[in-house]
Structure formats: C-alpha cells, structure tokens
Amino acid sequence: MNLQLAWLFDIDGTLLVTDGAPRECFARALRDSIGVEDDLSDIEFAGRVEPRILADILRKHRVILEHADEARFWNQVFDHMQVAMHPGRGRLLPGVSELLDAVDREPEWAAGLLTGNMTQMARIKLGHFGIAKRFRFGAFGEEATDRNALAVEAVRRVNERFGIPAERCIVVGDTEHDVTCARVAGARVVAVATGRTKRDTLEALEPDLTLDDLTDTRRVLDWAHAITSAPTSSRAASNPPITGPTTVGRK
Question: Which of 67, 75, 96, 190 is deepest in the core (most CB within 10 A)?
Fold first, then answer.
C-alpha cells in the first residue's frame, strides 16, 4: 500500500494525562535506589526524553549509577508506574479517541508515536487507557539523546519504512519542544494547548496548526487532507531533510 501521511503523536499532555504519576514514580525509585527523599518538583518533565530527566535527577544529587544499577532504577520506575496507574487515575484528553478513529479509517495514513517516554513507560500509559494497539510504530525516549534527535530518527524511520517524506509527517504535541523538534526534522506540526504550555506560547513558535484541544476532528482532517492533495517536492520525496526548519505549507 502506498502510504501518504504519517502521524507522530506525543503522549503526555497530548493524548492523555496521568495526574503526575511519572514524577511520583521517579521519586519513589530514587528513594528505593539511593535512599533520597525528593518530590522532584524542581525537575522539568514535560516534553523531554526520560533519560535526560534521570540525568538531571542524578546530577542534582551528585550520584552516578553503574549500568546495572541504572537498569534496576528503570525497573523500579516501571513497577511503581504499574501500581500508580490504578483504575480511575488520569484520563484520555478530549477528542483523542475520535481523532485516532478517523486516522485509522484512512487507508493511506499511519499513526505512530514520538515520545520522550521510555518504551515500557509508554506501554504502561497507553495500555491503561486501552489505546496501545492504535499505533503502528514509535520512537521512544531511550533511542536518542534529546527530543530533536528523536524526531529526526522518527522521520528517517518513516521514510525508510513507508516511503513518506518529512513534509508529510505530522508531529502532534503540546509543548514548545514538540514544535521545535518537528521543525528540526522537517516535519509539519500540530500544537495542541492541552498540556502546561499556554496557547499563546505555542502560537509564537508558528506551528502549522494550533488548537485548544483535539475535539474539532473535521478541522484536523480537512487540514491533513490538504497536505496529501498537494504535490511533494522531488527532493523531499527522495531525500527528506533531517536538520533545519521547514517552510513548506506554513499556515
């Protein structure tokens, strides 16, 4: 099948919220692993790859973990997360189910993930809300050093696997990091103000589309169909850009 469009969804603040569960679980793993009590309220989580978050935590407490100890730390985080995501905690954000349904009905579109979450963390969150099987592929926090590099890798994989150029990859996210990483990777970007970043802040970065939430499915679909109806440049189709911002189709 000749696919024409790839969606790269962020998770936290875009698809769902967990009511602070990841921060709690990192704090509990920190207590279990090195005996330090810290609520981690001064550590930035939103829009970042989780290994960078851990690096900030360890730097703050002047701790170095050996490889085996770091692996145990992550397992503790995941174990705590399984418990923390009890029935009734968190929620899918408005319009998410409807948009995923609409994307799934399009035979030439593919839905994937672009998330700073470790693979297992993403699996726990998505599984809790029953949407883990809605995504055909993903790029996860342990696969790159930062969000920009992760977006570049995700777009490269999409081109390699599906033949879809960067300008037909759509990053959907709720932070300035999502907008920036999309531009670095040469992708389009939908900024949705359902996380901690205010709409004005997102709009100042000039995403291709800015939304209060994902409830206006028809508007999103019409915008996406306009992308697939426009021709791609021969350069983009054969050699998608992996660095620098894109100006293709800016609204």
Answer: 190
User: Which pLDDT band, with edges at 50, 70 and 90, does 1 fall under?
Assistant: low
Confidence (pLDDT) at 2: 84
- The reply to whether 145 and 221 lie within a common domain is yes
Residues facing residue 169 across a β-bridge? 6
Q: Do residues 227 and 5 lie in contact, with contact meaning Cβ atoms separated by under 8 Å?
A: yes
pLDDT, tens digit, for every residue of 76-105? Answer: 999 999 999 999 999 999 999 999 999 999
> Do 9 and 112 belong to one domain?
yes
- Domain range for residue 63? 21-84
Indicate the helix (H) or strand (E) that contains 16: strand 16-17
41 falls within a domain: yes
Total tally of structural domains belonging to the chain: 2
pLDDT of residue 248: 25
Among candidate residues 37, 69, 84, the one where a domain is terminated: 84
Q: Is the pTM of this model over 0.70?
A: yes
Q: Which amino acid is at 217?
A: T
Kindly give the pairing relationship between strand 16-17 and strand 91-92: antiparallel
Instruction: Look at phi and psi of residue 63 and say left if phi exceeds 0, alpha if psi is from -120 to 50, else beta.
Output: beta
* Domain-ending residue, one of 63, 84, 105: 84
**Cα gap 97→21, rounded to integer Å:** 22
Local confidence band at 233 (pLDDT 50, 70, 90 cut-offs): low
Amino acid at 201: T
